[in-house]
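Audit log entry. Action: structure prediction of a protein-small molecule complex. Ligand: zinc ion. The ligand was supplied as SMILES and no pocket hint was given, so placement is left entirely to the predictor. Protonation state taken as written. Sequence taken verbatim from the request; no trimming, no tag removal. Recorded inputs:
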Amino acid sequence: MDKGLVCDKCNNYFARKVEKPFLEDSTLKLLRFAEGLESKKGKVPPVSAVMNGKHAVTLWKDINDKFAGHVDVPVEVFKTIKNSNHKRYALRAIRAIRA
Ligand SMILES: [Zn+2]
């Protein structure tokens, strides 16, 4: 094997024992999300968050827009927010938590 190359066995070992645990770390996930770092497939992994301090939601990054993304809000939670006095705070109050 040429100098500078890695055999499949070693490459697989690092993928499982180093890369995977590193990428699955909750703090790193948030950093990756904030920076919009894409995977090989061109996706930024979503993160879990709490909206209005109590509703579990999922945040998705739009890689084509530095500041945009979307929030998956469960239907029942959306109804609660829509009917509350706090709706103007709803999307502002999203706070990412450690997954
Ligand atoms: Zn090797």
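Audit: result stored. The first helix runs from residue 8 to 24. The two ends are 41 Å apart (CA to CA).
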